[in-house]
Design brief:
Chain B: One of its GO terms (cellular component) is preribosome, large subunit precursor. The complex is a heterodimer of chains A (about 375) and B (about 450). Chain A contains four helices and 29 strands. Chain A is mainly beta. Chain A has a single domain, classed as YVTN repeat-like/Quinoprotein amine dehydrogenase (Methylamine Dehydrogenase, Chain H, 7 Propeller). Chain A is globular, with a radius of gyration of 21 Å. The relative contact order of chain B is 0.11. An eight-stranded mixed β-sheet of chain B has the order 24-25-26-27-31-30-29-28. Chain B has four helices and 34 strands. The chains are: A mainly beta (about 375), B mainly beta (about 450). The structure holds magnesium ion (MG).
Amino acid sequence: NIDPESLLPKLPDPAELRPFPDHRSVEYVGHKGRVRTIAIDPTGDYLASGGDDGTVRIWELSTGHLKQKVRLSTTDPVNIVAWRPVISPPILAACCADNVHFIVPTDSTSPTAQAEAHTLLTAGFSAAPTIPTKSATGVDKPSPSSWHTPIPAHASQSISLTLSLRSTPKTLTWHRRGTYFATVCPSSGSPSTAIAIHALPTHTSQHPFKRLKGLPQTALFHPSQPKFFLATRQRVRIYDLQAGKLVRELLPGARWISSLSLHPGGNNLLIGSYDRKLLWHDLELAPTPYKTLRYHTRAIRDVAFHPTLQLFADASDDGSVQIFHGKVVEDGFENATIVPLKVLKGHRVRGELGVLGVVWHPREARCVSAGADGVVRMWA
Amino acid sequence: MSGVNGSAQVKIQLQTKNPELQLPQEIGPILVRTGLKRLELSRLVNNLLEATQPVPLQFLINGQFLRTTIDDFLTQNGISAETTLTVEYVKALIPPQTIASYEHDDWVSSVDILSSPQQSRILSGSFDGLIRVWGMSSDLLATGTGHSSAVKSAKFISPTQVVSSSGDRTLRLWKYEDTDIGTASLTPTLELYGHNASVDSVAVHAPSSRMLSSSADHTVGIWSTRKSDAPAAQEELIPVSNKRRKITPTAKPTATRGPLSLMSGHASQVAEVCFDETDATIAYSVSWDHTLKTWDLATSKCVDTRTTPQSLWSVCHLPEKSLVAAGTALKHITLIDPRVSAQTVSAMTLRGHTNAIVSIARDPKSSHQILSGSYDGTCRIWDLRSVRNDASEKIGEEVFRIERDAVRQARKLGTRFEGGVKVFGVAWDAEVGIVSGAEDKKVQIDSQA
Ligand SMILES: [Mg+2]
């Protein structure tokens, strides 16, 4: 007689999985209203945030001191901040209304690096103008975007470039090298124009997916292969960008996907959903989830793998951030080990909304969360 | 012998190193109940002293403070009650009291003290980019303007020279002068370029004219305090505005210089650096990369690396103990024996803070005590003799906790202080006392006098 319990793999004790964030550290105080988006720069020195007050703020991560405040709008929220994933020169993309603004941080940035950033952002103005593609009827297709010099009020706030789309982007995701980035505008008229891929050096934009089923929600690039992950409300499709074709479709079983995070190894995908489920997909296994985690009582807004440590986190409208151990054994027969480690509480739920974003430090076991309560907080 | 009813007795031999506290006549070992605690022992010794004013006393057995009954102390430390215990008594410490607060326009990042029996000076660095020199009656004597980002650290090099480091990637030297009419001046004399990110700490060794800096660019810099010794700055690091300054036609641009050396080795931001207190050719640096590094400044080489489980945000050398105190980005202070012969990384852990420790200073009067400043809004005094042995480590506990004055005042009124209270810098001086700068935009002075 074998005890069936003895056949189950033994999960490690959370105490043995330290370090992981378990207490409050620095707070970043100043936003009025909801903070919708946060991002830590690739050096780990600075935190950017944006929210309903129409401002982007750049903070010193370790002290919580405000370094730069950029007002993008007096009426529209800042929906996305995303650092270009290259250490130098530093560049921050910020989405507000239908526009993407490219900000050059000034604090502690050498004059040389600031000049390099400006050159990198504006080089595309002198690139050869793209010939508009003719549609079957011979009418010029409306361009998906326009790249232009920022208005004076923005230029004076160290914005070097503005990209105007035809709808409001809710996702901006960079390719690892910082040459390309993708935007997703879920409220776009047709699914195929909701998603655009942009080339920064040439200031060009295209809608690569012609016939798309379902409403696009969010997207990301594979870190090392020419693959693109696109989530509609209920599916995640993986495209090969070089071959220009769909290579895989995942069926997470969620009713409405909110967020994606790809493991740095590239073979495991986390999917957060408004219907409270967190889904772990092993891309080498079935198109259905390897694990379904139901730990939240409200919608999951964001999910994030740690870029270097065996940790992941999610953020929910129930006001909590949850920290998990997630161990992936690459090229092995072993499946991923998932251990819930800590529920981080402290954000207050405001108008049904809780924690809207969570990001990790590039190297350390510390994360930052952004709340609808206006609070931005580091956990250590 | 430990008795159930506490009536057991133990032989103790009382001793003191303090001449003021010598017993009027030599007494041999005396028998006391093992149930006694500090207060009862203090009363007993005060009786023997025939003191008119009782002196509060603390007791040390085997270099550790008695914090429990003698019986519990013997049990915890595995000491037999049959032996004669040597018990050293010392004056109990007086709790620090806040005596002054100096108001700033922005958060205070660092503090330093120029100690003098006549007229001490306090130097503060602020996130508003200014350095300030204060007299002892909260009188602002001089302001130094020039940094284009937050001042992260500022130190007196001598009674007439000051150095500051900033988020603007530079260090600056200033001439400091007191005038007869009760004011003073801070004049910029040199701008030091070399770092490529925020310069988060500076350390000074005046006798050798050397300074050390630590930066978010992952390097430790060695600099000279003398313009004539310093090499030229790398041209591309100097902003164009400095090369042709147009504020006033007569204003001469401040001279620029570069580092003697920039030492690489850390894999992340270097939070703080300090000189070895007995050998100024040695330095210790701590980093977000979890390590304490020992540097040989003569060769600009890292000679030793100690890796801990967490990011280290502050460092202080304790020469008498042969230890380096390193404050972590979590909640504790690790005492590290940096000597190559040391077997373990951590010799002792000081626990009690509830957030990162970003500044540590030595007690100017005792080799046993240190002061720490933390993001939890408190400064704490630790006595390395106040320890308990846990299963796996020696744990030190705080002797005193200093809160921000505004927090204390709010509590008195039955409310809560809502502002930020992170402490960023501490300094400790025999004349002035404990000085701390914090997010409450204040320099606070606490005294044990
Ligand atoms: Mg510091």
